[in-house]
Predict the 3D structure of the following.
Amino acid sequence: MELADVLATNKALVKVAKLYRGAQADVLSDLGLHPGQDVLLWMLGQEPGGVTVSEIAARLGVEQPTVTRSLSRLDQGDWFVREPVPGDRRSTRIQLTGKGRAAIPQIEAAWRVLAETATAGLADDQRALLVELLEKVRGNLLTLTAEVD
């Protein structure tokens, strides 16, 4: 790859990632959430019976301390409750409150705004190709980092 192509690729990826993260923060701020918290709450919303911290970590592809920190940041918002797991004194089940469940459609609406804004002017096949290409880029970058999904 020529240096001009390297520079153009790096510049485009950094600019898009930065702009998307900023737009995500702006859209989520109306809900009182920060980027990443939306994914955690949405995932909890898919599990009406709740899930343990270790299950959350496995599903999100992060370490348990990361989940614990994220939950601590959300703790003051009355988004979820912690309940003991019968028969396992070390585990805690995390379950959304009514407020948390009510936020799920709002989170999905925020994601829709982000996706539609980011892909405005693209045809459906171009959107599908964009996702395919971004997943390819992601897969390539995974060879340089330990991050999972």
User: Anything to note?
Assistant: The first strand starts at residue 51 and ends at 52. The chain has a mean pLDDT of 92. The radius of gyration is 18 Å. The beta strands are 51-52, 80-85, 88-96.
